[in-house]
Amino acid sequence: MQSQLDDIKLMQRIAARDQTAFRALYQQYGKAVYSLAYRVLQNGTLAEEVTQDTFLKVWQQKTQWDPNKGKLKNWLLAITHFTAIDRLRQERRQPALYPESIEDMEDMAQAVATEPLWQEGTVLRMLVTQLPDDMALLIELAFFRGMSHSEIASETHIPLGTVKTRLRTGLQRLREQWLEAVNRTSTHP
Amino acid sequence: MSSRNDTHAAPDCDSVELLIPDYAFGLTTPEETRLVETNLAACPEAVAQLADYRQLQDEMRLSVPQIEPSPDLEARLMAAIAPAAPAQTPRRVQPLAWLAAAAIVALALTNIYWLVRVNDLTARQAELAAQLQSQNETAFVLTSTNHLRWVRLPPEQEGGDATAFLMWNAESEIGLMYARGFPQPSPGRTYQLWLTQGDQRVSAGTFTVNEEGIGALLFHVTEPIDEYTWARITEEPATGSDQPEGTVIVHGEL
């Protein structure tokens, strides 16, 4: 696994225009970046464009990673997320509400069942599945599709006030469950 | 649940905390955002909750199912940062046969281009006569080079008939687009060609198609076309758009 020190060295080499380091950055994080872009855009071509745009922003130093503020991977994924949401708004086409096929969902369930507990994001996936379906859907639309309250209300035909309440409750519940899971794991490694 | 400061103009930390989930996820109104940002520093519990939500968002981004990108994405990305290293990118490899094929395609496209132009512009012959000299020179720039490139832009819609070819001189800012199989644009709409450079999308001009769905565009952009990585054609208002907003008809990598 890439350490924070490795990442700092890698980014220093990239700042010095080292193409080999840039390739290494892509090889290390390209799959995660593409996967998140695909999750937002539900389109392989657009996801590849966003992946390319994300890495080019790094190469062109349009934004800089501060190691004191978090992991390189989290920073890269935040850039990816914002870039993908921007692209989604430009394209002005929202993917289907339930884009994943049954096979994909089965694969995901299988992956959740077999991955080590603290493999990245796995616990959170499990926690989301424990939320009521409507709350999970609202969180999905707000976070991964970048929709506002009113856009969600329009998309789901749920009254605006109900959307606000359910979404807030869902996020609070998710946070509480996540903190509980984190504490439980740190107590019982 | 909140940490109130009761000694001076106490911020309403309860209200701030209530807004933190929405604020963290970019769902607050401008007024709500102002309320949070004005009072946040004085509400430690809200600060702590916000940090939790930021970490939660990191986890959510990590939680998406992992999918392998196409194997050639890495090569395209490396090509995008190394425009001066032609040997490293597949499209810059120029064996003799490739050059010959490209030249034939160039000539064919140029002929088709002029046929379309002549058919479409019979009503504008006088104007065409004035433009002909410069257009001939442009076509000469395209066809007389040893650095000719071309690419096919496939239809965005699976199974669609629309397709387009882009042809350009690697060393110049001039290119030729030939479209075929395009549907008639909606009334008041036209087609617009866009080139992508980094995260910028640049308009290369608008064009229409004839009854057979054929159209062509000689275009000129400010940077050498090799600097661009993607091209797309969208349907836009007849006056053209500043940024692509309409339906994508064809789309592909340069």
| Through-space gap between termini of chain A | 19 Å
The dominant shape of chain B is elongated
Give helix % range of chain A.
over 70%
Specify the number of helices of chain B: 6
What's the total number of strands of chain B?
8
How many helical elements of chain A?
Answer: 9
What would your notes on this structure say?
The complex is a heterodimer of chains A (189) and B (254). Chain A is mostly helical and 189 residues long. Chain A folds into two domains: 4-91, Orthogonal Bundle (Rna Polymerase Sigma Factor, Chain: A), CATH 1.10.1740.10; 102-187, Orthogonal Bundle (Arc Repressor Mutant, subunit A). In chain A, 75% of the residues lie in helices and 0% in strands. Chain A has helices at 4-15, 19-41, 44-59, 72-91, 102-114, 122-130, 133-144, 149-156, 160-187. In chain A, helix 2 runs antiparallel to helix 3 (44-59). The longest helix of chain A has 28 residues, at 160-187. Chain B is an alpha+beta fold. Chain B folds into two domains: 13-62, no CATH class; 87-253, no CATH class. In chain B, 37% of the residues lie in helices and 22% in strands. Chain B has helices at residues 13-24, 30-39, 44-62, 73-81, 96-120, 125-143; strands at residues 148-153, 163-169, 174-180, 189-197, 200-207, 215-220, 230-237, 248-253. In chain B, the strands form two sheets. Chain B has a four-stranded antiparallel β-sheet with strand order 1-2-3-6, with helices on one face. In chain B, helix 1 (13-24) crosses helix 2 (30-39) and helix 1 packs parallel to helix 3. The model of chain B is unreliable at 1-7 and 85-93 (pLDDT under 50). The interface between A and B is large, with 64 and 44 residues.
In short:
The complex is a heterodimer of chains A (189) and B (254). Chain A has 189 residues and is mainly alpha-helical.
Layout of secondary structure:
The complex is a heterodimer of chains A (189) and B (254).
Chain A: H1 4-15, H2 19-41, H3 44-59, H4 72-91, H5 102-114, H6 122-130, H7 133-144, H8 149-156, H9 160-187
Chain B: H1 13-24, H2 30-39, H3 44-62, H4 73-81, H5 96-120, H6 125-143, E1 148-153, E2 163-169, E3 174-180, E4 189-197, E5 200-207, E6 215-220, E7 230-237, E8 248-253
Antiparallel strand pairs in B: 1-2, 2-3, 3-6, 4-5, 4-7, 7-8
Helix pairs in contact in B: 1-2, 1-3
